[in-house]
Protein 1
Amino acid sequence: MQRAAEVTEFLNNERALDESFNTRSIPEGLVYPLGSLKTLKMPSLGRAMCAPSIYIFYTFLLAVNSVVWLISLKTAL
């Protein structure tokens, strides 16, 4: 609860927030990183597109988009 109160107090302090944006830093001890940003490896686009949650979603969008285009073309003719 105390940590949440400190974060809320920081976010409500306009002067401290402006200074933080200008210096591009967060006051020490307010937020702790979960890990080094340099050690996080992002998956390549090819590997990301092969994930079932991604390709099923985009296949669904492609199918819906195709149906909409076919309907719009049929009504236009």
Protein 2
Amino acid sequence: MYADPDSPVVRRIRADWPGALVANPVLPEISAEAVHRESARLPAAGADLTTLDQLSSDSNVALDGERVA
């Protein structure tokens, strides 16, 4: 699942999750700048690890339930 650190769902999961939180950033574009910018936001929001794994198209659902392209 993709994680938007501005989402209240992500903040709630971080607050309630006792273990390590692994998050996959939402990328507005595939570029080094976008990867760097969005990946930096997740640790600031409490993620312990950021992954850039490609998910299958069936898994492209954000934590708030919206489909991500």
